[in-house]
Amino acid sequence: MKTAIKHIHSRRIWDSRGRPTVEVDVHLQDGSMGRGVAPAGASRGSREALELRDGGLHLDGFDVSHAIANVNGEIAKALAGMNALDQSSADQRLIELDGTPLKSRLGANATIATSLAIAQAAAASQSLALWQYLSQGEAVCLPLPQIQIFGGGAHAGRRVDVQDFLVMPIGAQSFDEAMVMVAHVYQTAGKLMQARGKRFGVADEGGWWPDFASNEEALQTLTLAIEKAGYRHDQVAIALDIAASEFGQQGSYTLGLDNQVFSSEEWLSVLLRWIDAYPIISVEDPFAEDDTAGMQAFTRAVGNRIQVIGDDYLVTRVDLIEAAHTDQACNAVLLKPNQVGTLTETYAAMLAARRLGMGMIVSARSGETEDTAIVHLATGWNTGQLKVGSFARSERMAKWNECLRIQEMWGKHTVFAGKHGLKLAL
Ligand code: PGA
Ligand code: ZN
């Protein structure tokens, strides 16, 4: 069989935080090769699949020698001879070989890098780009981007509690135009910081990281940057990733910057006030992963006009997505392949979200590499939205630039999801 897996090789490479990560090459009988890389989160949900790190003192415990040894040993042996075109059987073999609920034996970093490498090898064997291979001939759209302008939370020294202040260019007619709009806002925001004499750096995902006096100042400044860049709110709107599990638990939310502690109900009224005051159309993890009542109250209050995304709350798991839909705890699903550990499980999560009429956003992690696989997942699966971090740093720009290449390759047939990528009546 030409598409049988002949050889698997894993190596240590380094991610955008200068930490080790797992890269896997899968070689097929016909000479095709596919490469997969594991990204890494910093603000992780407690129910995510486990990223296997060596621990100890060496490289602050972040080394991945065991995960790499698992790929080069057990995984390579178990997958040898399997058909790379049969992704679900290969992933099932990985799941069974690991044998734990959270991939804690082999490591989800080992399994996701292998799983993605198999898909890439399969696509190469068919002389197709990954997005074409995944689309199986169905019509697809380039995704509407969510792009961070200001970073906070675990990605920026917790100077601001809210993790991501992002923009969505909902007025763009093409992906190319979307990039131009975001570039204007990003550069305008940087100039505003400079003019105000704010100290700022660049956060893990490439957003500006200024010393705001309050969480709300970041929102005010982003709104101003959008307006100063020349856009109306129906052209460029705001998305927030609150990542509330990072500062809230058991119904109590502590905003370090604002020096305030809120109950779940009080936090809800703060968020609702922000939504009324600023052009926000999407909010991710507004409440902590243990606060279903908070998620429900928020979704009830805003659900038909605002996208409410579950990230830590859902961790790309079908059972949690179904429960959240039943509970009406959110209306959109963030899809992060390494939260579950195989492409097939990520695909199942996407299908569940689609079946339930929920929004779908493929997302990068805060620790990334130059790998662009997620762009192909968002496009090939036609999810409508993609979230990658900011508009700076090459591990982020590699993804946006890949979208532009796909747009060009498609030529006049290019369809851009635009605002329809959101499952909202805008
Ligand atoms: P993470 O952040 O990769 O650190 O989890 C991304 C996000 O929360 O969406
Ligand atoms: Zn998130």
Could you tell me the number of beta strands? 16
The fraction of residues in strands falls at: 15-25%
Largest sheet: 8 strands, mixed, barrel
Give the overall silhouette.
Answer: globular
Question: What's the gist of this structure?
Answer:
With about 425 residues, this protein is of the alpha/beta class.
Description:
The protein is an alpha/beta fold and 426 residues long. Helices cover 38% and strands 19% of the residues. The chain has 13 helices and 16 strands. The strands form four sheets. An eight-stranded mixed β-barrel has the order 4-5-8-12-13-14-15-16, surrounded by seven helices. A three-stranded antiparallel sheet has the order 1-2-3. Strands 9-10-11 form a three-stranded antiparallel sheet. Helix 5 packs across helix 6 and helix 7 runs parallel beside helix 8. The N and C termini lie far apart (50 Å). Bound molecules: 2-phosphoglycolic acid and zinc ion.
Any descriptors?
426 residues; alpha/beta; eight-stranded mixed beta barrel; three-stranded antiparallel sheet; globular; binds 2-phosphoglycolic acid; binds zinc ion
What is the topological layout?
Blueprint: E1 5-14, E2 20-28, E3 33-37, H1 65-79, H2 87-98, H3 108-125, H4 130-135, E4 144-151, E5 164-168, H5 175-195, E6 200-202, E7 208-210, H6 215-228, E8 237-241, E9 248-249, E10 252-255, E11 260-263, H7 264-277, E12 280-284, H8 292-302, E13 307-310, H9 318-327, E14 332-335, H10 337-340, H11 343-355, E15 359-363, H12 373-380, E16 384-390, H13 394-410
Parallel strand pairs: 4-16, 8-12, 12-13, 13-14, 14-15, 15-16
Antiparallel strand pairs: 1-2, 2-3, 4-5, 5-8, 6-7, 9-10, 10-11
Helix pairs in contact: 1-2, 1-3, 2-3, 5-6, 7-8, 12-13
